[in-house]
Amino acid sequence: MQKAIYTTVGIDELLPHVQALKGVGARFVQMHAERCVDDGSYRLVYTFINVRAAQEQIAQDGSYAIENLVVEGIDQYQEIPSISSYYPAVFPFENEAHDLFGLAITDMQIDFKGFFYQVSTAEPMSVITPEVKAAREKAMKVRAAAEAKARKAAAEKAAAAAAAGEGAADAAVAQPAAAAGSDAQHDDAAAKAALKAAELEAKLTAMDPEKAAKVRAALATKAARDKQNKEA
Amino acid sequence: MDHKMSRSPWVIHYDGSSCNGCDIEVLASLTPLFDAERFGVVNTGNPKHADIFLVTGSVNAQNLPVVRQIYNQMLEPKCVVACGICACSGGVFRDAYNVIGGVDRAIPVDVYAPGCAIRPETVIDAIVEACGILDQKETVMRAGGDPLTVGGAATWDGGVELGEDGFVAAAGAGAGVDAGTADGAPAGKPAAPAAAKEAE
Amino acid sequence: MAHRSVIPFGPQHPVLPEPLHLDLVIEDDRVLEAIPQIGFVHRGLEKLTEKRDMHQFGYIAERICGICAVGHSCGYASACERMLDIEVPGRVQYIRTILHELSRIHSHLLWLGLLADAFGFEALFYRSWTLREQILKIFESTCGGRVILSINEIGGLKHDIEDSELAGIVQTLDAMRPDYEALVHTFLDDNSCGERLHGVGVISKKDALNLSMVGPFGRASGVDYDVRMFGDGAYAGLAAFEPIVATDGDCYARCQVRCAEVTQAMDIIKELVGKIPHDGIGGRTKLTPADGARGEVVIEQPRGEAYYYVRGNGTKNLDRFRVRTPTSQNLAGLTHALQGVLLANVPMIILTIDPCISCTER
């Protein structure tokens, strides 16, 4: 069974990490760049497999690992050190990252200076089309709504369970009616409050983040005032 | 004397940006099971020797000059066969950023042979179709006419032009998506063979 | 007096059906340096994930390359399954592996044919390709296509391959064996083949490891690495698996490794057909990938280790699809192998890495 390990490293720590992997005899598998739709930054993923370690691991528990180094949040003009002095086979991928994503990779052993791919549009892979952005935003909204709905359903279920649990306890222990009544009333109230809170939370998550923050702040001040009033 | 070029057409094959599927099928059509050689077809690597140009895959900014150069090096009468749907119209890669469109964006195409991947039988069929056009061209040339009035060249719209920087100069062509559709050339339709038949 | 010049090789060259351009810096007859230039087949299909949804993209992934099509569609489907956390039935894994091994046989026979063509042995070229047609016939009778099979879905298969058909495959392979052995005998023992292959384009094991070479190209130099030995999927069901390794590191060793791998693939298919489980063929999943979910898979393609990576972003389209194919990894090895060789041997060496350019450029 294969498993993947992703380690996020800073751009300055990249070369020491690669050197360490080379030191333990890991083989280089690939490198690729991705562009984040949300903030427009770039991400580089370097993949390695340590064949010897993998074989030992397979003999033990049948699993092996694909090791990945991830460099997050790269700016387009930030200089990225080339790892080609450790792994020469990286040259097609680094040149590709330069030509298709427009990333500035320095000290490549075989540097095509932008003539590796001659494509009809400059840096085509770095383009984020409005459609993609819109689809992504829509998906995020749908997801937030679905999560809110799920949370609401969970809260309702919890409330129902609480009520049912009370009923069962009632039958089994046969407590004094008055106490049971008050308990049931209390639980009911608690369940209602929980439901209301869940509904509110659901509404908030579906809202714009800025608006949600404002509403939250307003609620907090109201709660504080209520508490003060009660104490007074 | 009635000697005809079509009795032994020599073919040259160039892979535009095909996925290899059509290339190996073009080669397979020449091997003993399908045996295009029984029609006198010989595969050559030299454009000057060739009569029929088999192009697989679509064209992009980098291979467009190569396709044009091979075409221009071939001597008249010559014939172009677009092998496979990518060569006809761009196929599944039509929307990719680096695909300009079918081979008719670069050179006039005489026979469009569809398929993904193209079947060896279709390749042989297309070569035989191309032989007919070769004969017509030869007849026209013997009569002192212009071979470009026969086949795909007669109705060709000129394709796309590359700018000085190597990028596609025509507006909208760079996007790849619009290249085929905007020019109004129905790349997928076998317009050229039909025109050739009318000429007969 | 040594005279230095640069010879452009390709993109249109008789030895390769595909466009690869090399700038060969030569001194008299010897190559000092070879600089590969690619990009003639670049289509930009990794970007197409934005326009095609996850399931439609399966068809695009399959068309990365027409020779390795089965491997690409299996790799893409399993990477997506890993991303979505789907466990596919055992039968699906077995059928995928059987088809993949069949495609290894067809790819190696194709390569053997091209090799024979490269050193001018036309009859041998035709013999290899005629034998290869039997595999294509199996593909056509079981899946309907000769090159592009389109049998994989994310989560299973589109249709089953019946047990009777599987038995037929084994029968065909058994019938092929004597012909195949005669073919191998010519390749490995015939003087005219051996003369062209022995001692040409040698790469030592140390260099092969340093250049991260993969596949038969690496194994011919003694690199003891084959992804199948990790025992993923149906390979776990094999009684034993040993990568085929040669030590000479020359063109002959590469030919030797590939010849032996065909027989190995035939054995694997026979064993898997005998053990195939009957637990359904799954079907297209209805799941949508979670935001940031990743799936990655390494498989052993005919040309070596291939890596597939998918990343979801919460929509029906993938955020990123990445394929690292064996040839792009072997480009560094190719430039190394060409250093110091005679110009006349260049086509032979380029061919023995079995370059697949449309895989490399996507």
What would you say about this model in short?
The complex is a heterotrimer of chains A (232), B (200) and C (362). Chain A is of the alpha/beta class.
Written account of the structure:
- The complex is a heterotrimer of chains A (232), B (200) and C (362).
- About 5% of the residues of chain A have low confidence.
- The longest helix of chain A has 44 residues.
- Chain A is elongated and about 75 Å long.
- By secondary structure, chain A is α/β, with parallel strands linked by helices.
- In chain B, strands 2-1-3-4-5 form a 5-stranded parallel sheet.
- Chain B has one domain: 3-Layer(aba) Sandwich (Rossmann fold), CATH 3.40.50.12280.
- By secondary structure, chain C is of the alpha+beta class.
- In chain C, a hairpin with a 2-residue loop joins strand 2 and strand 3.
- In chain C, the strands form 3 sheets. In chain C, strands 1-2-3 form a 3-stranded antiparallel sheet. A 3-stranded antiparallel sheet of chain C has the order 6-7-8. Chain C has a two-stranded antiparallel ribbon with strand order 4-5.
- Chains in contact: A-B, A-C, B-C.
- At the A-C interface, strand 1, strand 2, strand 3, helix 2 and strand 4 of A face strand 6, strand 7, strand 8 and helix 10 of C.
Helix-strand layout with pairing:
The complex is a heterotrimer of chains A (about 230), B (about 200) and C (about 350).
Chain A: E1 2-9, H1 14-23, E2 27-35, E3 42-49, H2 51-61, E4 64-74, E5 79-81, H3 91-101, E6 104-106, H4 130-173, H5 177-206, H6 209-231
Parallel strand pairs in A: 1-4, 5-6
Antiparallel strand pairs in A: 2-3, 3-4
Chain B: E1 10-15, H1 21-28, E2 42-44, E3 52-56, H2 64-73, E4 79-83, H3 85-89, E5 111-113, H4 120-142, H5 152-155, H6 177-182, H7 191-199
Parallel strand pairs in B: 1-2, 1-3, 3-4, 4-5
Chain C: E1 4-9, E2 21-27, E3 30-37, H1 54-62, H2 69-84, H3 90-118, H4 122-143, E4 152-153, E5 156-157, H5 163-189, H6 191-197, H7 205-210, H8 215-219, H9 251-275, E6 291-301, E7 304-313, E8 318-324, H10 326-338, H11 346-352, H12 357-361
Antiparallel strand pairs in C: 1-2, 2-3, 4-5, 6-7, 7-8
Keywords:
heterotrimer, A: 232 residues, Beta Polymerase, domain 2, 2 domains, four-stranded mixed beta sheet, two-stranded parallel ribbon, C: 362 residues, alpha+beta, Cytochrome-c3 Hydrogenase, chain B, three-stranded antiparallel beta sheet, 12 helices, 15% strand
